[in-house]
């Protein structure tokens, strides 16, 4: 599995999780958009390019893909990506709280990714043993 963090999340989150996943044979890569594309690359541009150049990915974003909603959603659908969108509550949280919560959610995300093949899912801020990802 390969995970791609879009530009609305700090590169450090992707890089820290890449280091934490270093010994997990199921995780081939965890990268940030700026590791492969210029930081100002628009979603409808990087989405098809990502898949064309690097194969299937699981995308994490805090973006609701609503700026150009139809074009972005269509690009995601055509690419067959699985996208995990962090719920709006994530936006108002401090940096370290977001980092800690992302690590807490990570096993759930990777398990879900191993069983999914496309779609957009909301990642709630709240996490319990019964927490679930919700299809968008």
From TrEMBL:
Domain of life: Bacteria
Annotated ranges, domain VapC45 PIN like: 1-87
Matches recorded under Pfam families: PIN_10
Name this protein carries in UniProt: VapC45 PIN like domain-containing protein
Taxonomy of the source species: Bacteria, Pseudomonadati, Pseudomonadota, Betaproteobacteria, Burkholderiales
């Amino acid at each position: 599995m390969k995970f791609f963090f879009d530009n609305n999340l700090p590169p450090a989150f992707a890089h820290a999780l890449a280091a934490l996943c270093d010994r997990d044979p199921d995780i081939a890569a965890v990268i940030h958009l700026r590791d492969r594309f210029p930081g100002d690359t628009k979603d409808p541009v990087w989405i098809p390019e990502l898949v064309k150049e690097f194969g299937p990915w699981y995308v994490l974003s805090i973006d609701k893909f609503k700026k150009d909603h139809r074009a972005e959603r269509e690009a995601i659908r055509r690419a067959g990506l699985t996208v995990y969108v962090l719920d709006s509550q994530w936006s108002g949280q401090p940096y370290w709280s977001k980092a800690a919560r992302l690590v807490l959610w990570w096993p759930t995300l990777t398990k879900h990714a191993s069983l999914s093949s496309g779609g957009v899912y909301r990642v709630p801020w709240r996490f319990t043993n019964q927490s679930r990802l919700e299809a968008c």
